Amino acid sequence: MTSISETPKPHILIVDDDAEIRDLLSRFLSKHDFRVTTAKDGREMRQAMTDWSFDLLVLDLMMPGEDGLNLCRQVRGESSIPIIMLTAMGEEVDRIIGLEVGADDYMAKPFNPRELAARIKAVLRRSSSSVMPDSDDNRPDKVIFAGFMLDPVTRTLRRGDESIALTAGEYDLLIAFVDHPRRVLNRDQLLDMARGRAAIPFDRSIDVQVGRLRRKIEPDPKNPILIKTVRGGGYMFTPEVEAA
Question: Is the overall model pTM greater than 0.90, yes or no?
Fold first, then answer.
């Protein structure tokens, strides 16, 4: 396991069983203003995450022993750290599974390291800044809806004393809905509002994000009442949104 000495640069954890890929990405990203730590498996990943604080995780899907999907589930159950998954498989179902378990982005091998660096920067921007700057000046410091309180300043969602962890993608989508309550938003609009079309490599990724968000805020995710599906149209956020 290799680590770079601590600096203010974003700290990236690369988890891949291929030593050549770990070395390539470590050298390339280190030259492009990132700190890099690498791990060859889940054991080294967990140890690294205990020893260090990371800004983003690049995780290989196909690894011997614990695969990337299981590791992604474990990480997502404890943290909202952005995750980009790497895989040699290119089928859409694999992309969707990666999103379902909590990945924020996805790249198929072989890939250009420059594109990965650009994806990392895009995901970090989404996770650290508001996705709708045009409406920031008009949005109150805190908003409430359906028993929830959303604080865009700290990017936190609470229901009573319970804190609900949101990934960057889930938060971005919720902000898009909160800023446009009781309006039908189609997938193209949500792509533009929530994450930016240029950063999205997945068809119908909004549907996956909506499903994940529903599981966190709906009383019954199988019969959603807060995020309604509008047939042939898209989605509507139904609650009344008020300033806290």
Answer: no
